[in-house]
Every structure is written in C-alpha cells, then in structure tokens.
Write a structure and sequence with these properties.
Shape: globular
Order of helices and strands: EHHEHEHEHEEHH
InterPro entries: MoaB/Mog-like_dom_sf, MoaB/Mog_dom, MoCF_biosynth_CS, MPT_Adenylyltrnsfr/MoaC-Rel
Strand order of the largest sheet: 2-1-3-6-5-4
Number of strands: 6
Number of helices: 7
Catalytic activity: molybdopterin + ATP + H(+) = adenylyl-molybdopterin + diphosphate
Protein name: Molybdopterin adenylyltransferase
Radius of gyration: 15 Å
Bound molecules: adenosine-5'-triphosphate, ligand MTE
Enzyme class: transferase
CATH class: Alpha Beta
CATH topology: Molybdenum Cofactor Biosythetic Enzyme, Chain A
Number of domains: 1
Strand content: 15-25%
Structural class: alpha/beta
Largest sheet: 6 strands, mixed
Keywords: Molybdenum cofactor biosynthesis, Nucleotidyltransferase, Transferase
Distance between the termini: 23 Å
C-alpha cells in the first residue's frame, strides 16, 4: 500500500507593521485555521512574518521553494498600490510560470465583499514543484479568497508533481478532471 506523504504548506504574512510587532498577525493564523478545517490529508505548515518589499518577498519565497521544498505557499498582504506593497513583484520575480487566473478570480469574488478589491494586484504561479498564491492583507478577506480558488489547487499540485491534497467535500469540492 502506498504511504501518504506529508504535504508542506508555507504561509507568508507580508506586513511592515505586523513584522515590527505594531499589531498581531491575524492573517497567517486565519489561513492556517482554514487549511486545518478543509484539508483531510496529512500536511505540515510553516508560518513566516516578513516586512513588505520585493527583495524580502523574493528571498523568502525562493528559499521556501528551493531549500525547504514546500508544495504550496500562500502569501497575505502587500498586494495593493501603496509604495511599500510589492508582493506581486517579489512573487513574479521568482516564478517560472505565472497563473493569472487566480488573481482574476480572486478580484472578481472579492468585489462582492468590497469595491476596493480591484486595488489588489495579487497573482499566482509555479516555481519548480511549488505553487505560490498571493492573497490580500485584510484578514477578513482570507476565507472568501480561499473558498473561491482552492478547488483548483489540488489538481494544480498534481500537475506540477507536488504533494497530493484531499479536501473535505462538504467544505471544498476539489476538482480533478479525468485524464
Ligand atoms: N497580517 C495582518 N494581521 C492583522 N491585520 C492586518 C494584517 N495585514 C493587514 N491587516 C489589516 O488589514 C487592513 C488592510 O491592510 P493594509 O493594506 O493596510 O495592510 P498592509 O499593507 O498589509 O500592512 P502594513 O502597512 O503593515 O504593511 C488594515 O486595517 C490592517 O490593519
Ligand atoms: N476580499 C477582499 N479583497 C480585498 C480587500 C478586502 O477587504 N477583502 N481589500 C482590498 C484593498 S482595500 C486593497 S488596498 C487590496 C490590497 O491589500 P494588501 O496590500 O493588504 O494586500 O486588497 C483588496 N482586496
């Protein structure tokens, strides 16, 4: 019988103020709680809290992919138009392939929550065997964001040779087309 591998998921909060301790990071724990409620296969998480900026994001993401071999990275924060918001630039800089559909769908769904959803430049993509997805910084956006794109994540991980994820179908019906 095949043994189920433990999937590695990194959660990266990108926030100047939270990383300086000016407020507690609520976004990272919110993502972790959502994952624990939805994923039914074994996985481990690594949480990072880093300052805004292209180099800060690029270095963190590249190390998680290349040194730690994580299967999935979810970032939160730094996707807006403010001068220090450079999470998409830092992400794109280290991607091998961009997956623009994630950002498109996240903005479309978030418009139901707030008209300022169009200010988020969030994107996603692949580096090696890692899928990286940007989410907005507002912790209140996390549940809606993950609910709207996560059905496509397990199949994407299959396609890039990353770890296998199963989800609770009453929460998220993962979609795997017949191949
Ligand atoms: N990780 C977080 N934990 C708790 N609240 C957050 C976090 N990130 C953002 N927020 C809150 O969400 C709202 C919108 O986020 P904003 O775009 O100002 O944050 P940011 O640019 O990620 O934060 P920062 O200014 O620290 O870099 C703000 O009210 C902020 O207080
Ligand atoms: N679902 C959802 N999406 C959202 C928001 C939100 O509150 N909920 N905030 C918007 C706002 S106000 C901004 S400026 C951008 C970027 O936020 P960030 O820089 O914290 O990533 O995300 C947008 N997307």
């Amino acid at each position: 019988m095949e043994t189920q591998q433990t999937t590695k998921i990194a959660i990266v909060t990108v926030s100047d103020r939270a990383s300086r301790g000016e407020y507690p990071d609520l976004g990272g724990p919110e993502i972790e709680a959502w994952l624990r409620a939805v994923i039914t296969t074994p996985f481990e998480t690594a949480l990072r809290l880093i300052p805004d900026g292209r180099d800060s994001v690029s270095a963190t993401l590249a190390a998680l992919c290349d040194e730690d071999g994580v299967d999935l990275i979810l970032t939160t924060g730094g996707t807006g138009p403010s001068p220090r918001d450079e999470t998409p630039e830092g992400t794109i800089a280290i991607l091998h392939k961009e997956l623009p559909g994630f950002g498109e769908q996240l903005r479309r769904a978030s418009l139901q929550q707030t008209p300022t959803a169009i200010l988020s430049r969030q994107t996603a993509g692949i580096r090696g065997k890692t899928l990286i997805v940007n989410l907005p910084g507002n912790p209140a956006s996390i549940r809606l964001s993950l609910n709207t794109v996560f059905a496509a994540v397990p199949y994407c991980l299959d396609l890039i040779g990353a770890g296998r994820i199963e989800t609770d179908p009453t929460r998220i019906a993962s979609f795997r087309p017949a191949r």
